[in-house]
Amino acid sequence: MTGSDPAGPGPGGPPPRRPTGRDVAQLAGVSQATVSLVFSGAEAGHRVSEGTRQRVLEAARGLGYRPQAAGRQLRLGRSGMALLAVPNLQGPFFGRVLAGVHEEAARHGLAVVVSSGWSAAMLAEAATTSRFDGLLICSPDDGQLGELPSGTPAVFLDADPAAAGGAPTVELDLAGAMAAVVAHLTALGHRRLGRLRSTHSAYTFRVRQAAFERAARGLEVLELGVSLNRGESGIRAAATELLTRPDRPHAVVCDDDVVASGLYQAAADLGLRIPGDVSVVGIDNIAVAALLTPPLTTVDLPGERLGRAGVAALAGLLGGEPVAPVEPLATSLVVRSSTAPA
């Protein structure tokens, strides 16, 4: 039996052989060196065009070709793996970040390992072993950050640039987000705002609070702290306390959509209508926001874009390229049915 299929024995023939880089090069019409550059993630510095890169990847997919990780690690001194550290993998926003990370990592030939609930010690240990080529550290709590060993490629997402030790950071435009929220509510005539603020010790929530205070300057604000560690019952209790005040606000800004959903429950318990009795705005635009009754007005935080931008910056570090500062990623207000005129 004859044929050009590199893995193609007929029934009863010898075991199929694995497709090689040479097979990919022949099918894509490029050199083996180009195939190696594409799968090492070094193609950008060698002027391999995007069209050529895509042709190589398509040929590899068609043949079922996978570069051997061990051989690649020996050649490049790399494992081809990156660690994504998030505070809580069950958080819907972090699922969006992970989707973007995986999408971009595939373009650079990187595999991603995810760690949730990590500590500074674990992160330092990961940074000093050869298991990971680089680290992506997303929305860390203050206590999770220790000093990373020098020379470890790392990129911080939604994190304090001052704590990054000079490493690249990718931030969200939270100031623009809060300005849009307050502008929306004041345009509806609201001058007394309620606020359910997360007490989590994370940079992202401090930035949200500072941005809200700037945007709401000159307005009356009734604010309560919410501990996300107390779960649904804690959120509901704080929301109930806010909504049963004699000077109850008729519009409430929540630090995320999970907190907003707890306020929905508290309002229902008290017989209050949304938005007839109280307008509600969240932040994150997780999937549940559109499923609430009524659908929640919220700020879309582009988690997928955050993940993609982080991996692109990390790939640049691994390739020895200078990484330009990344402008804060734009957010957008998604107006649904949970807000109404005062």
Describe this structure in words.
This protein is α/β, with parallel strands linked by helices. The protein has 3 domains: 47 residues, 434 Repressor (Amino-terminal Domain); 122 residues, Rossmann fold, CATH 3.40.50; 129 residues, Rossmann fold, CATH 3.40.50. It has a 6-stranded mixed β-sheet with strand order 7-6-8-9-10-11, with helices on both faces. Helix 5 links the parallel strand 1 and strand 2. It starts with 20 loop residues before the first helix and ends in an 8-residue tail after the last strand.
Tell me the domain tally.
3
Task: Give the low-pLDDT segments.
Answer: 69-76
Give the full name of the CATH homologous superfamily of the largest domain. Answer: Response regulator
Strand order of the largest sheet: 7-6-8-9-10-11
Provide mean pLDDT, rounded. Answer: 85
Largest sheet, in brief, is: 6 strands, mixed
Q: How many helical elements? A: 11
SSE series: HHHHEHEHEEEHEHEHEHEEHE
Strand content: 15-25%
**Radius of gyration of CA atoms, rounded to a whole number:** 25 Å
CATH architecture of the largest domain: 3-Layer(aba) Sandwich
CATH secondary-structure class of the largest domain? Alpha Beta
Helical fraction equals 25-40%
CATH topology (level 3) name of the largest domain: Rossmann fold
Specify the overall morphology. Answer: elongated
Helix/strand/pairing category: alpha/beta
Protein name: LacI family DNA-binding transcriptional regulator
Domain HTH lacI-type: 19-76
Pfam families: LacI (PF00356), Peripla_BP_3 (PF13377)
Region (Disordered): 1-21
